[in-house]
Amino acid sequence: MQITKVIRDFLNGLAFGIIETVPGVSGGTIAIILGFYSELIEALNHFTENAKKYTKFLIPISLGIATGLVIFSVIMTYLLQYFSFPTMTFFIGLTVGIIPLIYIKIKEPKQWFKPKELAIILIALFTVLVVANLKPLPVEGINHIDAPFMLFIFLAGIIAAIALVVPGISGSFILLLFGIYPLVTYSVSSIGLLLTDITNISLMLDIAKVLVPLALGIIIGGLSMARLIENLLKNHYKTMYSIILGFLLGSVCVLFRESFIFQSGSSALIIIAGVVTFLLGSMISFSLGKKRFRLL
Prior knowledge:
Blueprint: H1 2-20, H2 27-34, H3 37-46, H4 51-82, H5 84-106, H6 115-132, H7 147-165, H8 171-177, H9 181-196, H10 201-235, H11 237-257, H12 268-292
Helix pairs in contact: 1-2, 1-4, 2-12, 3-4, 3-10, 4-5, 4-9, 5-11, 5-12, 6-11, 7-8, 7-10, 9-10, 10-11
């Protein structure tokens, strides 16, 4: 049973890592779909209270995330280059499939939404749309990473971490907004090259200058945000689910209008393939979410 849980946690982390390689898609959403969102928030908040218990959970999750990021960053780059529309519609479908379950969690029996919940949903949706319309920050010195630029990466990591733990907001999109997404994906993909030549100290330092401050920022930001989310889930769950629903609706709107969805071209066959992958993603998300939603 313990081995089974370790494997399941690793696969959950792997799915989280894969999702985070896709610009605009939220890892928090897949955590809800697969049913480990609340466990992840709990582990981040109460690690020191029971380190042994939460280490058994966080180590396979972390290894899965790292594996997904390193291996699938290359695969996802290929899919987005040559099959962008059906690839993106699959991930959009994953997001859409969980929306009805969040809706059921919020609404009162035989009612739609109370004004408070509806206002929160609209504010969250509007926030995503506003953020999506911001232009990426101009980043200078991308080929020469000095201390100020490492601090900039650290701060970007803190903001991205908030997106990592909040469903509907994409951490990779935040990195795009800060203008460092290409640098981060290049650094992650370079790990494979480093493993073939571990004596390449120069490459090791270049990777470390990007990923170390980013990881520190993500850890600090994630821990800070997890505490707030846990409080909302326990004491104001309708407010939290309303925020999540607004973010999910906003992210779907943003993803459908992104130009990179059609970067590999469009045709009748591609559109049909996109519809099929969208329906497949929706059905998978709804089926898994319905089964595991009780874990939230």
